[in-house]
Amino acid sequence: MRIMKFLLLAAASAVSLNTAAARPAPAAASASLATEDPQVLARADALLARMTIEEKVGQLAQLFKIPVLPSVDDKVRSGQVGSLLFITDPAEANRLQKIAMTEARLKIPLLFGFDVLHGLKTIFPVPLGMAASFDPDVAEQAQSVAAREARAVGIGWTFGPMIDVARDPRWGRMVEGAGEDPFLGAAMARAQVRGFQGPRLGTPGHVIAGPKHFAGYGASPGGRDYDSLFVSDAELYNVYLPPFAAAVDAGAGNVMSAYMDFNDVPASASPRLLTDILRGELGFKGWVVSDANAIHSQVKQHFAADAGDAAVRAMKAGNDMEMALLAPAFATLADSVKAGKLPVETVDRSVRRILAAKIAMGLFEKPYADEAEAKRVLADPAHRATAERAAERSLVLLRNEGGLLPLAPGAHKKVAVIGPMADSPDDTVGPWAFVYDRDETVTLFEGVRDRLGRGASVQTAAGVQLARSFPSGLEMFQPPPPAWTAERRATEFQQAVKLAGDSDLIVLALGEARNQSGERASASDLRLPGEQIKLFEAVAATGKPFVVVLMNGRPLDLTGIVDRAPAILEGWYPGTRGGTALARALFGDINPGGKLPVTWPRSAGQVPIFYAHNRSQAPETQAQRYYDQPSSPLFAFGHGLSYTSFRIDTPVLDTPELKPAGRLTVSTTITNTGARAGDEVVQLYIHQRAGRASRPVRELRGFQRVTLAAGESRKISFTLDEASVKYWHSEERAWVIDPGTFDLWVGTDAKADLTTTFVVGGAPRTVAAR
Ligand code: NOJ
What we know:
Number of strands: 29
Structural class: alpha/beta
Helix content: 25-40%
Bound molecules: 1-deoxynojirimycin
Largest sheet: 6 strands, parallel
Radius of gyration: 26 Å
Strand content: 15-25%
């Protein structure tokens, strides 16, 4: 039954698995890829010369290998498939690879791909959480460990990082990316590509990075996943492309095209996106894979007449490989070439790119995973330590009235950890985690219990059950538990409230179940799902001291909670060591220093809401744009508290003018004025006062996370250059720089108020994209 449901879902939709300082725009030339090495290309060409058209087309097919689908063995044997996805067992990868290497005519190794988005066995915080660290190094380290684990089991390519800028939290996939800001997004994209891929494609212990989804997928109207969307050129260039430009500059070997219609053309068939922009302007040299079944979907989207038409148009547009569940639309390409509908050179070009990647990855020499080594790598305790640190860095202290946090470890003898997120390993790791070790995952309850040891009695109760059914067919991997009966619901609720009443401290763990966040998990209401508000009210009514810990993949509507919960710690989905990291933060072993990578709305009615908007004609009434609620967000982009306090000095410039091709250094001193060590993320925003276009009221152009001991001061500086002030002008259809006065702010969130100005010199000009 479940298999049927899965296949139906898969057929009926575009299925997914239905189965630092960064620059705002590309500045450097694209990193040269190992796939551009003349020797690699010569080898690819020699092989290409021996291939039949059917074998060539086979290399363009990537098929799912999952238990519910028919065997792919014959397709591997006959050279009808070049890549498989969803295999995480090295023995199975080796079995299939052996067929390719010994039974297929040309012995071209398979390339195994998988969604290693935030870890394989060791799970790191979800990407939105990693972005909250404002620490690209942490993301790089995490993804490098993820790559090591993936490579060890035979995976050579990850469908990540996901780098879609997302400004509407109703869109479930916000959790997979770095949030709303293109500058932060570019820094995180660059770091993750480096982490996954290493300095060069083919680096041992690393995998090919496949940033996705090209492009503009995050602009889904109403947050509805897969919906067709319209993106202006100004938004495309200024908002959605910078992370991709950064990923390409970092040398990403692959890019995944997006599902949806982009300005009326499916992204996987858009010559403008895939050829003119991705290759022509961003300088991408790798190969493009479609999203799952996206070529077939072009027919469903009423764009292509049939699978053959879709395949030809996707290929012509620059989509080299098709990810497909069952029969690839690209299987029609051999006939299309024979019928003269597609030049064989177009097929050759794509095959060459894929062969070059396989050669550069060393797959011809080392096609098999070492199963014994894989076991050792997956068990490496250093990986768990990296996950713990990443989780610690991602925590954001949203609220802490009266300094309730940190809690004194010895002060509470009876502690209750309550709520649906309290002791749920699945929700601790979050979406896009499949083969993680449940037993090794430390839940919040376990983390608190371990932290307090014998000093306290720590108990847990879920209180409420959240809806567990995956909207995307993912139940196949994890069947949802049976829904509680009405009777059980009442009992569990009462037990939790009684436990709360019997305790002297309550940690209330609320949020979204992991299936309520991610692909196809759009929400029209951002309030806590299920009966969590009722649970919150019952716990608050006990009068016992309590703190709220959130695990979620998007900002939530905290109406009724934010004003009554004295302390709120945002944990995102913190990963394998999430509970340990959270407990250490709650009891003051570490000091949370993460910041919001997304503006936090008061309610769904405010979204999309983001800090980098243009000024309206009535800015003075901006705060009252809604008659029923303020139009300001609940928490600003960049917000995050600390257990200590900081002072930042007014920024000083080394020169008042940014000259053409020049640089300007902004310096300030930050001092930890509190009594304990802590982290602050110093953020730099700029604003162009006048020019050929209205520009956002603020744009992030620098950030630095610093750790300071109590009383310690540090001078920090940021460099601005032309890339910091250029923007895409929709009417000029060019990157431009407007001379004139710019405001500059330095501070600890998007409301930063330490300000000065600088002048951009020279004449109004256009500048090269790179
Ligand atoms: C669909 C998703 O959109 C994409 O991000 C993912 O990589 C593929 N499915 C494969 O799971």
